[in-house]
Amino acid sequence: MITPLTWDSAFFGLSLARVTSSTLAPASAGEVVALARAQHVACLSLLLSGKDFSSIAAAQEAGFHLVDVRTTLERPAAQTLPTAPALRVRRQVEADVPALEDIAGEAHLNTRFGRDGRFPRDRVAELYRTWIRKECAGSADEVLVVEAEGTPLGYVTCQAGAGGAGKIGLIAVRNGERKRGAGTALLRAALEWLAARGVQEVSVVTQGHDVAAMRLYERTGFVTTSVELWFHLWLI
Protein backbone atom coordinates (compact mmCIF):
# COMPACT_ATOMS: atom_id res chain seq x y z
CA MET A 1 0.00 0.00 0.00
CA ILE A 2 2.82 2.42 0.84
CA THR A 3 6.54 2.43 0.20
CA PRO A 4 9.19 4.32 2.21
CA LEU A 5 11.12 7.05 0.39
CA THR A 6 14.51 6.21 1.86
CA TRP A 7 16.68 8.83 0.16
CA ASP A 8 14.14 11.63 0.60
CA SER A 9 13.67 10.72 4.26
CA ALA A 10 17.40 10.85 4.96
CA PHE A 11 17.75 14.15 3.12
CA PHE A 12 14.91 15.97 4.88
CA GLY A 13 15.32 14.22 8.22
CA LEU A 14 11.69 13.11 8.15
CA SER A 15 9.98 9.78 7.59
CA LEU A 16 8.52 10.12 4.08
CA ALA A 17 6.54 7.53 2.14
CA ARG A 18 4.41 7.24 -0.98
CA VAL A 19 1.16 5.45 -1.75
CA THR A 20 2.05 2.73 -4.27
CA SER A 21 -1.34 2.64 -6.01
CA SER A 22 -2.31 5.21 -8.65
CA THR A 23 -5.93 5.08 -7.49
CA LEU A 24 -7.57 5.52 -4.10
CA ALA A 25 -10.99 4.20 -3.14
CA PRO A 26 -12.91 5.62 -0.18
CA ALA A 27 -12.93 2.17 1.43
CA SER A 28 -9.15 1.82 1.28
CA ALA A 29 -8.15 5.41 2.06
CA GLY A 30 -8.57 4.87 5.79
CA GLU A 31 -6.45 1.72 5.67
CA VAL A 32 -3.68 3.57 3.85
CA VAL A 33 -3.64 6.39 6.39
CA ALA A 34 -3.78 3.96 9.33
CA LEU A 35 -0.83 2.01 7.92
CA ALA A 36 1.18 5.21 7.47
CA ARG A 37 0.45 6.22 11.07
CA ALA A 38 1.49 2.77 12.31
CA GLN A 39 4.81 3.17 10.46
CA HIS A 40 5.29 6.67 11.95
CA VAL A 41 5.29 8.34 8.53
CA ALA A 42 5.55 12.12 8.76
CA CYS A 43 4.38 12.92 5.23
CA LEU A 44 2.62 10.59 2.82
CA SER A 45 2.56 11.47 -0.89
CA LEU A 46 0.08 10.33 -3.53
CA LEU A 47 0.05 10.76 -7.31
CA LEU A 48 -3.30 10.55 -9.10
CA SER A 49 -4.49 11.07 -12.65
CA GLY A 50 -6.11 14.46 -13.11
CA LYS A 51 -9.08 12.65 -14.68
CA ASP A 52 -9.66 10.30 -11.74
CA PHE A 53 -12.23 12.41 -9.90
CA SER A 54 -13.33 9.55 -7.68
CA SER A 55 -9.81 9.00 -6.33
CA ILE A 56 -9.26 12.75 -5.99
CA ALA A 57 -12.41 13.05 -3.88
CA ALA A 58 -11.34 10.08 -1.73
CA ALA A 59 -7.90 11.64 -1.19
CA GLN A 60 -9.34 14.98 -0.14
CA GLU A 61 -11.82 13.29 2.17
CA ALA A 62 -8.91 11.44 3.82
CA GLY A 63 -7.08 14.71 4.45
CA PHE A 64 -4.62 14.83 1.53
CA HIS A 65 -3.99 18.29 0.10
CA LEU A 66 -2.98 19.22 -3.44
CA VAL A 67 0.61 20.42 -3.80
CA ASP A 68 1.48 20.15 -7.49
CA VAL A 69 0.14 19.59 -11.00
CA ARG A 70 2.49 17.20 -12.81
CA THR A 71 2.22 17.76 -16.57
CA THR A 72 3.94 15.53 -19.11
CA LEU A 73 4.58 16.82 -22.62
CA GLU A 74 6.03 15.06 -25.67
CA ARG A 75 7.23 15.77 -29.20
CA PRO A 76 9.16 13.93 -31.94
CA ALA A 77 12.88 14.55 -31.56
CA ALA A 78 13.45 15.12 -35.28
CA GLN A 79 10.47 17.42 -35.83
CA THR A 80 11.27 20.95 -37.02
CA LEU A 81 13.52 22.48 -34.38
CA PRO A 82 12.74 25.84 -32.79
CA THR A 83 14.68 28.88 -33.91
CA ALA A 84 17.06 29.82 -31.12
CA PRO A 85 18.89 33.09 -30.41
CA ALA A 86 22.63 33.43 -30.87
CA LEU A 87 23.61 32.07 -27.49
CA ARG A 88 26.33 29.50 -27.08
CA VAL A 89 25.26 26.07 -25.81
CA ARG A 90 27.96 23.57 -24.93
CA ARG A 91 28.62 20.48 -22.86
CA GLN A 92 28.94 20.99 -19.12
CA VAL A 93 32.44 20.97 -17.64
CA GLU A 94 33.45 20.49 -14.01
CA ALA A 95 34.14 24.19 -13.52
CA ASP A 96 30.46 24.93 -14.25
CA VAL A 97 29.11 22.94 -11.30
CA PRO A 98 29.11 25.70 -8.62
CA ALA A 99 27.27 28.09 -10.95
CA LEU A 100 24.78 25.40 -11.96
CA GLU A 101 24.15 24.58 -8.29
CA ASP A 102 23.34 28.24 -7.65
CA ILE A 103 20.89 28.27 -10.55
CA ALA A 104 19.26 25.05 -9.35
CA GLY A 105 18.90 26.37 -5.82
CA GLU A 106 16.74 29.26 -6.99
CA ALA A 107 14.98 27.84 -10.04
CA HIS A 108 13.11 24.80 -8.75
CA LEU A 109 11.33 26.12 -5.68
CA ASN A 110 7.91 25.89 -7.37
CA THR A 111 7.92 22.09 -7.32
CA ARG A 112 5.87 20.00 -4.90
CA PHE A 113 8.34 20.15 -2.03
CA GLY A 114 8.69 23.90 -2.36
CA ARG A 115 4.98 24.56 -2.67
CA ASP A 116 4.05 22.32 0.25
CA GLY A 117 5.11 24.89 2.84
CA ARG A 118 6.09 22.32 5.47
CA PHE A 119 9.49 21.56 3.93
CA PRO A 120 12.17 24.17 4.80
CA ARG A 121 12.93 26.32 1.76
CA ASP A 122 16.68 26.06 2.30
CA ARG A 123 16.46 22.25 2.25
CA VAL A 124 14.34 22.31 -0.90
CA ALA A 125 16.96 24.52 -2.55
CA GLU A 126 19.71 22.15 -1.40
CA LEU A 127 17.74 19.21 -2.81
CA TYR A 128 18.00 20.64 -6.31
CA ARG A 129 21.59 21.74 -5.82
CA THR A 130 22.34 18.11 -4.99
CA TRP A 131 20.26 16.88 -7.92
CA ILE A 132 22.10 18.92 -10.56
CA ARG A 133 25.44 17.99 -8.98
CA LYS A 134 24.56 14.31 -9.37
CA GLU A 135 23.41 14.88 -12.95
CA CYS A 136 26.74 16.49 -13.78
CA ALA A 137 28.56 13.58 -12.11
CA GLY A 138 27.00 11.04 -14.46
CA SER A 139 23.35 10.50 -13.51
CA ALA A 140 22.34 12.23 -16.74
CA ASP A 141 23.54 11.07 -20.14
CA GLU A 142 24.37 14.67 -20.97
CA VAL A 143 24.20 18.09 -19.34
CA LEU A 144 24.20 21.09 -21.68
CA VAL A 145 24.93 24.65 -20.58
CA VAL A 146 23.91 27.92 -22.21
CA GLU A 147 26.31 30.78 -21.58
CA ALA A 148 26.97 34.42 -22.30
CA GLU A 149 30.49 35.85 -22.14
CA GLY A 150 31.65 32.68 -20.41
CA THR A 151 29.01 32.83 -17.66
CA PRO A 152 26.51 29.96 -17.43
CA LEU A 153 22.93 31.22 -17.79
CA GLY A 154 21.20 27.85 -17.51
CA TYR A 155 21.30 24.12 -18.11
CA VAL A 156 19.34 21.17 -19.40
CA THR A 157 19.88 17.48 -18.64
CA CYS A 158 19.21 14.75 -21.20
CA GLN A 159 18.51 11.03 -21.00
CA ALA A 160 18.59 8.87 -24.16
CA GLY A 161 16.52 5.86 -23.15
CA ALA A 162 15.99 2.53 -24.85
CA GLY A 163 13.50 1.94 -27.64
CA GLY A 164 13.78 5.38 -29.19
CA ALA A 165 12.46 7.23 -26.11
CA GLY A 166 14.35 10.11 -24.55
CA LYS A 167 13.77 12.53 -21.70
CA ILE A 168 14.59 16.06 -20.79
CA GLY A 169 15.19 16.10 -17.04
CA LEU A 170 16.09 19.28 -15.22
CA ILE A 171 16.04 22.54 -17.15
CA ALA A 172 16.56 25.95 -15.60
CA VAL A 173 17.64 29.48 -16.47
CA ARG A 174 19.15 31.95 -14.02
CA ASN A 175 16.74 34.51 -12.55
CA GLY A 176 16.88 37.74 -14.52
CA GLU A 177 18.02 35.96 -17.71
CA ARG A 178 14.72 34.40 -18.77
CA LYS A 179 13.78 36.76 -21.60
CA ARG A 180 16.92 36.29 -23.66
CA GLY A 181 15.83 33.04 -25.29
CA ALA A 182 18.12 30.88 -23.17
CA GLY A 183 15.37 28.31 -22.56
CA THR A 184 14.69 27.96 -26.28
CA ALA A 185 18.40 27.63 -26.99
CA LEU A 186 18.69 24.86 -24.40
CA LEU A 187 15.69 22.96 -25.74
CA ARG A 188 16.94 23.16 -29.33
CA ALA A 189 20.37 21.86 -28.29
CA ALA A 190 18.82 19.07 -26.21
CA LEU A 191 16.57 17.97 -29.08
CA GLU A 192 19.53 17.93 -31.47
CA TRP A 193 21.58 15.89 -29.00
CA LEU A 194 18.79 13.37 -28.46
CA ALA A 195 17.94 13.04 -32.16
CA ALA A 196 21.61 12.41 -32.97
CA ARG A 197 21.46 9.39 -30.64
CA GLY A 198 18.48 7.77 -32.27
CA VAL A 199 15.80 9.14 -29.98
CA GLN A 200 12.44 9.42 -31.73
CA GLU A 201 10.11 10.70 -29.01
CA VAL A 202 11.13 13.14 -26.29
CA SER A 203 9.19 13.70 -23.07
CA VAL A 204 9.49 16.33 -20.38
CA VAL A 205 7.68 16.87 -17.08
CA THR A 206 6.85 20.29 -15.67
CA GLN A 207 4.45 21.98 -13.28
CA GLY A 208 1.09 22.70 -14.88
CA HIS A 209 0.83 25.93 -12.89
CA ASP A 210 4.14 27.18 -14.35
CA VAL A 211 2.72 29.20 -17.24
CA ALA A 212 6.12 30.36 -18.50
CA ALA A 213 7.42 26.79 -18.71
CA MET A 214 4.25 25.54 -20.42
CA ARG A 215 4.48 28.32 -23.01
CA LEU A 216 8.14 27.52 -23.66
CA TYR A 217 7.41 23.85 -24.33
CA GLU A 218 4.37 24.59 -26.47
CA ARG A 219 6.34 27.10 -28.55
CA THR A 220 8.96 24.44 -29.20
CA GLY A 221 6.49 21.81 -30.44
CA PHE A 222 5.66 19.87 -27.28
CA VAL A 223 2.07 18.81 -26.63
CA THR A 224 0.53 17.75 -23.32
CA THR A 225 -0.01 14.01 -23.01
CA SER A 226 -1.00 13.62 -19.34
CA VAL A 227 -1.88 15.63 -16.25
CA GLU A 228 -1.41 14.16 -12.79
CA LEU A 229 -1.89 15.61 -9.33
CA TRP A 230 0.50 15.32 -6.39
CA PHE A 231 -1.10 15.21 -2.94
CA HIS A 232 0.59 15.28 0.48
CA LEU A 233 -0.82 14.17 3.81
CA TRP A 234 1.04 15.27 6.95
CA LEU A 235 0.64 12.99 9.95
CA ILE A 236 2.69 14.93 12.49
Structure description:
- With 236 residues, this protein is of the alpha+beta class.
- The mean pLDDT is 94.
- Helix 4 (97-107) crosses helix 6.
- The chain is built from eight helices and ten strands.
- The protein has helices spanning 6-12, 26-38, 53-61, 97-107, 112-116, 121-139, 182-196, 211-219; strands spanning 2-4, 16-19, 43-49, 65-76, 88-91, 142-148, 151-160, 165-173, 201-207, 223-234.
- It is globular, with a radius of gyration of 19 Å.
- The protein folds into two domains: 2-63, no CATH class; 74-226, 3-Layer(aba) Sandwich (Aminopeptidase).
- A ten-stranded mixed sheet has the order 1-2-3-10-4-9-8-7-6-5, with helices on both faces.
Assigned CATH superfamily of the largest domain: Gcn5-related N-acetyltransferase (GNAT)
Structural class: alpha+beta
Shape: globular
* Low-confidence blocks of residues: none
Helix content: 25-40%
Throw out a few tags for this protein.
236 residues; alpha+beta; Aminopeptidase; 2 domains; 8 helices; 10 strands; globular
Structural topology:
Elements: E1 2-4, H1 6-12, E2 16-19, H2 26-38, E3 43-49, H3 53-61, E4 65-76, E5 88-91, H4 97-107, H5 112-116, H6 121-139, E6 142-148, E7 151-160, E8 165-173, H7 182-196, E9 201-207, H8 211-219, E10 223-234
Parallel strand pairs: 2-3, 8-9
Antiparallel strand pairs: 1-2, 3-10, 4-9, 4-10, 5-6, 6-7, 7-8
Helix pairs in contact: 4-6
Brief write-up:
With 236 residues, the chain is of the alpha+beta class. It has helices spanning 6-12, 26-38, 53-61, 97-107, 112-116, 121-139, 182-196, 211-219, and strands at 2-4, 16-19, 43-49, 65-76, 88-91, 142-148, 151-160, 165-173, 201-207, 223-234.
